Amino acid sequence: MLLGVRGLAEAEGVTRPLLDEWAISQHGLENHSENAAISTAPKAWRFEGEMKEIAATFREAGLPDQFHMGAAALYGLLREFKDQTGSVQIQDVLKALNAIPKPDNS
To answer: d(Cα 70, Cα 97) in Å, to the nearest integer?
Structure first.
């Protein structure tokens, strides 16, 4: 979720204001998000499948599955980093999170 927030801020051009706010109200969250990118991206391919399994369990129980399907989609965008331990950078992760075509709202 944290990487999704960073990805959205990047896509909307508000990364600097987000990081400035975090420096005030969520001290250390910028570093935490960078560490999350470095540690999570190489194994995100695995989490994609796990989120889909959890979503199916929720769905079968009659509960909303959208949260976990959304998480699966975000993890899927990071598939390219599979097993790249030690070489992942936050900017590369943010670029991957924003590599999908944007919907035409016209």
So the answer is: 12
CA distance 50 to 68: 9
Directed axis angle between helix 66-76 and helix 2-12, to 10°?
70
pTM of the model: 0.82
Q: Distance between CA atoms of 52 and 13, rounded to whole angstroms?
A: 30
Q: Which residues of the chain have pLDDT under 50?
A: none
Angle, helices 29-40/2-12, rounded to nearest 10 degrees: 110
Fold of 2-97: N-(1-d-carboxylethyl)-l-norvaline Dehydrogenase; domain 2 (1.10.1040)
Look at residue 83 in the predicted model and tell me its pLDDT. Answer: 84
Structure tokens that stand for 64 in this block: 């909303």
